[in-house]
Amino acid sequence: MERDTVLLKDSGEDIAAAAELIRSGNVVAVPTETVYGLCADAVNEAAVRAVFAAKGRPADNPLIVHLSDFSEAVKYTKSIPELAYRLAERFCPGPLTMVLPKNDRIPMITSGGLETVGIRVPSHPVMHRIIQLSGCAIAAPSANISGLPSPTCAAHVMDDMKGRIAAVVDGGESRFGVESTVISFEGENSVRILRPGAVTRKMLLEICEEVIVDPAILKELEEGSIAASPGMKYKHYSPKADVVMVEGELDRFIEYISENYGENVYSLIFDGDADNFPYRYVTYGADSEEQAHFLFQRLRELDEIGADKVYVRAPSKDGVGLAVYNRLIRAAGFEVIRV
Ligand code: TXA
Ligand code: MG
After folding, report:
1. Does residue 195's CB lie within 6 angstroms of at least one atom of ligand 1?
2. What's the pTM value of the predicted model, to 2 decimals?
3. 269, 251, 275: which is closest to 314 by C-alpha?
4. Residue 164, ligand 1, Cβ within 6 A
5. Residue 129 belongs to what H/E stretch?
């Protein structure tokens, strides 16, 4: 349904207007510290349906429910392990989503048909205020069209959502640039990372005895196997260009590009690679934090400049680098070349 999408500002008046729109069943895009989210009242089935429709998202891919404080989680879950409280104390508010058994207040449409719900307490002041003012638990997937890179600024949201939702709140660039770390609980002191993010394995190990990295983070799911997180099934974060990840030293990377160069072929490389790089390129930061911050923005830029093929220099898998690697390997449809 075509309609006007209002651009709201990061002001008291506009934030109140956004909260009221959500409270009354509309869909509004809101900045968070990870990426922009497409927000709706999590217990309003019609509003949640409108989120799925605006994104073109498969109905079996659950939405994360955002709360103003982790103490609110008891209202929407059946039970909360002690470990979750310890993690919340350290990482909430922040870029961590905990998968917990849901209770009946969370509709099946919100949980994508699962008996669990991902709970997150975002730290971004605008999102936090909107949750408080609306009085809602807010279901929010990333505010992109399903399959495209997540938006890290209001302009990217407008590119995807103009005419599809009620409003976008402009809160500047998202700090982390990749979506939250999603974890599930394995045992009393053990968690599993279903999607890596800015809360890293090392950080989780400060609180947990064991942190399992789900194999689907780095490898394609085998046909017929069940995804621990439905999002793992889908090709993701993909620009229109064909993305290929190239793993290896810079001189080998350059050699590989020289053999595969052509019209509208681009390289996505590290800042430090750019001196004397002999082919068309775009850079995406010098370290893992910067690469996380810039990745989605650069993938969108590559589309704008008309790239047909993008060879990406494979990032480090350390720290938040694991999240960058995970998004890129999905953008590349698991096509990795070792040189
Ligand atoms: O940082 C973020 O998490 C952003 C901001 C807006 O909060 N949200 C976000 O939502 O990235 P979305 O819907 O784009 O990605 C949520 C991911 C999906 O891969 C989904 O499959 C997984 O989390 N997920 C959500 N609920 C789950 C559940 N109950 N069990 C397993 N995986 C779940
Ligand atoms: Mg998403």
Report:
1. yes
2. 0.97
3. 269
4. no
5. helix 125-134
SS3 71: helix
Q: In the structure encoding, which two tokens stand for residue 292, read together?
A: 């996380």
Give the integer Cα–Cα distance in Å for 99 and 184: 5
Give me the CATH topology for the region 242-338: Rossmann fold (3.40.50)
Token match 């001196």: residue?
Answer: 275
CA of 20 to the centre of ligand 1 (A): 24
Helix H or strand E encompassing 47? helix 45-55
Smallest Cα–Cα separation from 53: which of 106, 120, 2? 2
CA separation for the pair 135, 218 (Å, rounded): 38
Q: Is the CB of 323 under 6 A from ligand 1?
A: no
pLDDT tens sequence for the chain (339 residues): 567 999 999 999 999 999 999 999 999 999 999 999 999 999 999 999 999 999 999 999 999 999 999 999 999 999 999 999 999 999 999 999 999 999 999 999 999 999 999 999 999 999 999 999 999 999 999 999 999 999 999 999 999 999 999 999 999 999 999 999 999 999 999 999 999 999 999 999 999 999 999 999 998 877 777 788 887 776 667 778 999 999 999 999 999 999 999 999 999 999 999 998 999 999 999 999 999 999 999 999 999 999 999 999 999 999 999 999 999 999 999 989 999
The CATH 3.90.870.10 portion of the chain extends over 6-169
Which segments of the chain belong to CATH 3.40.50.11030?
242-338
Residues 142, 299: Cα–Cα separation, whole Å: 16
Q: Which of 175, 229, 232 to mutate to test ligand 1, by most ligand atoms within 8 A of the CB atom?
A: 229
**Nearest C-alpha to atom 21 of ligand 1 is from which residue?**
231
Torsion 300-302-308-310 (CA) sign:
negative
Ligand 1 pocket, residue 134 CB under 6 Å: no
Fold type of domain 6-169: DHBP synthase (3.90.870)
Cα(256) to centroid(ligand 1), Å: 36
Radius of gyration of the chain (CA): 20
